[in-house]
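Feature request, filed as a ticket because there's no other form

It would be nice if the structure record came with a short human-readable summary line next to the tokens. Right now we just get the raw output. Example of a typical job, pasted below so the devs can see what we mean:
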Amino acid sequence: MSLKVAIQMDPIDHIDIDADSSFRIAEEAQARGHSLFYYTPDQLSYREGKVCARGWPLTVRREKGNHFSLGDQMDVDLQDFDVVWLRQDPPFDMGYITTTHILDMIHPDTLVVNDPFWVRNYPEKLLVLAFPDLTPPTMIARDFATLKSFKEEHGDIILKPLYGNGGAGVFRLDANDRNLASLHELFAGINREPLIAQKFLPDVSNGDKRIILVDGAPVGAINRVPAAGETRSNMHVGGRPEKVGLTDRDMEICAAIGPLLREKGQIFVGIDVIGDYLTEINVTSPTGIQELERFDGVNIAEKIWQAIEARRA
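Raw output as currently delivered:
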């Protein structure tokens, strides 16, 4: 099966080819004989009943500093493609949401991965609310008094933007911290969105486990260990990836959420687990494929494409 594949992603020029999951997805697609077309989110458009993009035929190669080649720029009708990848990074702002609305117009005749309707309705820090028995105590609120009462109840909390990514804007406020009011003022001055607060989990010092699920089934995990003196374990901010296996609790969590992910067309998902608790379900632009492949020797990108090809067949 040879598929026409379009990849909607952030600029490809400066990506780390040893870590970027979108690059690995493109590399595997090319190896399987699929043709690639690349465009950035700002080049997606709707015009007179058609969903279009301005971009380039793409060839990728695993050569640092020479990892891609582009053909001539052209305008395309995305309905002519078999698969469109929705792969730009958050923040999950109105620009991001608008792309999901536009791509909705061609899905599922053109298979959009992940399903844009459910990406829009299941952003990472909100989908976990459907599984309160799996998550630490969590609050979503904008009102300061409400957030203050949550902190008073739990003492040691994590406070972060509801639609952020990569560990940006994540703060730990322990029992002696007095910065909640200042942080609330700071965030309130930036946007009108609520914040998310969760009870701090001391197990994070042992790592924040990223589990990859393909079409609802777990295929492996990596452990992300925070740098010394750091609460955040994201690799963007210095977290160290380590090889790790799946525990019985991990499998229990995956069994609980997997059927819903599969039903809603979330083919490539990365969940975050600290200790025994699920903290995020990443559906917008999950990462971790390359680290997992190196640790476990399993071709995760192949599994992703097998799931897509099965749906297209």
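Something like this underneath would help us a lot:
The chain has nine helices and 17 strands.
The chain has a mean pLDDT of 94.
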